[in-house]
Amino acid sequence: MLPVWPSWRKIGFRFAFIYLVLYTTPWTLAAIIPGLDSVTQYYDQAWDWIVRAANASIFQLKDELVPLAGSGDTSFGWAQLCLTLLVAVVGCALWSALDRKRPNYDRLDYWFRLSLRYYISFYCFTYGIIKLFALQMPFPNLSQMATPLGDFLPMRLSWMFIGYSTPYQIFSGVMEVLAGVLLLNRKTVALGLVTAIGVFAHVVVLNLSYDIPVKLFSIHLLLCCIFLALYELQRFLNFFIFNRVSEPDTSFNIQLDKKWMRYARVVAKITFIVFAAIVPFYESYNRYNSIEAMSDVKPIRSGLYDVDLYVLNGRDTVPSLMSDTIRWHDVVFDKNGGGSIKTSDPMFRQRYRRGYFTYKPDTTREVLELRLFPADSLPLMTMKYKLPDENTRHLWTDYKGDSLYLRLRRSKRHFQLAERQFHWLSEANR
Fold it and tell me: Fewest 10 Å CB contacts: which of 161, 183, 290, 394?
């Protein structure tokens, strides 16, 4: 005799199944395997067209939707959310009308929850492994330290706050990876869900509190965890609240009668672990080593330099006035070939009242090429340089139709934040 689900559970399952499958698109995980990324290409193109068409005819959030890129909370993301909700409601109603007599969805429910387990685990590894090497939030660089605190937006402030403390970031990564590992074994799913809920609840609060544009995605990861935890609700209540014996969960136990099925399960799990955990770990390790091995871009020594002499056309010395936002007040050269200038000149990438650039010296011609981005084929400007000593830089270039001479001197500013301070004994607030 098949168990009969109550009507509310069947309706809830139908809605949750359609909504979460459409939002998580678990089949797109195939893209992590080299050569299979084209599998999802046509789906992505079709879904993109449907979202835009639905927005134009129904939602009308914006005339032109901004695609998902650096932000996951763009107008396209919200239009996609609205469409997913609409399809889930309509689909649930049709499904309920056409399939009223089915007693339960036990088998479909098993595969649905299994896919959500691996979906959550995948992103636990994705975000956790890069934190193990403190790569997601890097330590504040010189350009950021030279920027007034009040100029930063909340997200950048949170990024620097986490990036400052390597132990804190690694701890966050350990907890995320631990949740991912626990979710892979059906015997530890309950503990994995408790861990994942704690991890993603923390992430959601950070995203909401610091206006980090991954709000929709992080909330859905947390919702997936809570949805799976609802199946464990009675066991959690017995264990944590009522101090009763909690029966073992067997909902993820499945009888595979044929040998090839058992082999297929093992192969599938190993494949997932390799491409979701081992390969990203190896890639993050190599990236960490390359960053650790990074040194100064010779012969330009990294550091913060004050522009103490700024001369146009060989005769017009421009004084350093705070009201002059175009004049270069200081220049930062970082070890990674990037840098910034305290200027509001729009010819540079403007961020937090500083103009950002990348640089590459040519020691043969003694010139310094500045580009907006490393991949740019043509330089933004080419500057001749002289390095009379370790603390002084002379630069010449053509700048907006004028000749420009700069004398840079290493700044005496000292950033205490760069010292990574820690004190067991603290006699006063710092």
Answer: 290
